[in-house]
Write a structure and sequence with these properties.
By secondary structure, this protein is mainly beta. It has one domain: TolB, C-terminal domain (Neuraminidase), CATH 2.120.10. About 5% of the residues lie in helices and about 45% in strands. It has helices at about 25-30, 65, 85-95, 250-255, 345-350; strands at about 55-60, 70-75, 95-100, 115-120, 125-130, 135-140, 145-150, 165-170, 175-180, 180-190, 195-200, 205-210, 215-220, 230, 240, 260-265, 270-275, 280-285, 290-295, 305-310, 315, 325-335, 335-345, 360-365, 370-375, 380-385, 390-395, 400-405. Strand 8 (about 165-170) and strand 9 (about 175-180) form a beta hairpin. The termini are far apart. Mean pLDDT is about 85; it is low at about 1-50.
Amino acid sequence: MSNRVVVCTLGLSFAAVAAGAATASASSMAPSFCERAKCSLGPNALSRPSQAQTATVATHPTAGNLAVEARAVGRIAAGSKRSRSLQRFLDRFGELRTVRQVGVEDGEENEVIGAIEAAAVDGRGRVLVLDRAFQNVRVFDGERGQVTVIGRRGSGPLDLRAAYSIWPVGRSGFAVADGVLGVKYILAPTRDSVRLQRTVPIRADITAGCGIGQTVAVYRTPSEDTPVVAILGESGSLLRAFGSPYKTDVPLVRSIMSEGVMGCSADGRIAYALNFLPFVHVYQANGMKLWSFRIGDFRQGFQDERQRSDGRRSIGLSDNTKDFSSIARITAAGDGLFLVQVAYHTVASRRLRNEFARLDTYIIDSSSGDAEFLTSKMPLVAQVSGSTIVTFSNDPFPRVTLMQIGS
């Protein structure tokens, strides 16, 4: 883990202070809403320093970080020409319907989810839910009506510490990317037969991960000027890396402003984005860049880099930034397509501790470079598998909803 300290990020960094002395653990001092918001917690958490002790030395993102040549993504007029893959998905999306939901507000202990970080459907149709509040995986088996809880917060073979992503492996297995413990491959054919198959070490802070065949792609948040996307072999060896982090000379600011998301397609294409910038970049697995897209409706927020009288630095939302956007998720949708979801935050949504005020979903075609706005009514998308779209929400209570598009 790096030496950065972050209190919590809800599409922004409320405070980040370079570690200088031992402090209480993040679990004991982090704000209570961090279990419901998407938090990025270092090994320690500190309260925000007094404004009187600090001076603003820079505002981020800087102009240089916003000067990216990219294709615009926005609302397309009816009748506009689209690629065949994109048009086919839009036609199928028009037949969207809900088929199943797991997670309840009140019920059996195994069925009540703490806070959803990610979800997926495995090869047997079971719903896998990665619970960030309890750091475990809940397996909902619809055929048997069973719910199996795998792991807990800890360091055991099946345990998790800072899990961000989950994806199915084969018919009865799955992998979980954990920023502390690495990528764990777990086989779970039945509720009584669960075992760890192998672990791929990561050796870096991450905020996302996904599988590409026998390799693993992870999104790193570097304090140094190193690529954010890394492709790892089965032993954890670095095969290749690409993608630019946030450009700054301050390691703490680089690490916070470089936090991001990514998605991987079955054919090895990778799309990634820095949370706080309006750009989505698509690469092939060999590191060759395909496209950069700019979200036209993105409301840019700004964060002030402050320096304390003792020389330590912090970064937090600028006082004049009220409403802002952040790129929340990127999910592969088949045929070279990716769904990009942009969260819009307001003063009211932050005060109410909601995940966002609105969630806009865009679709991009990494083959043709076509892209457009899709909807503002779709929950967070965790997986697209064939005609099944796995979505989730934590408001007003955590639940996963399976949706079906036309064939």
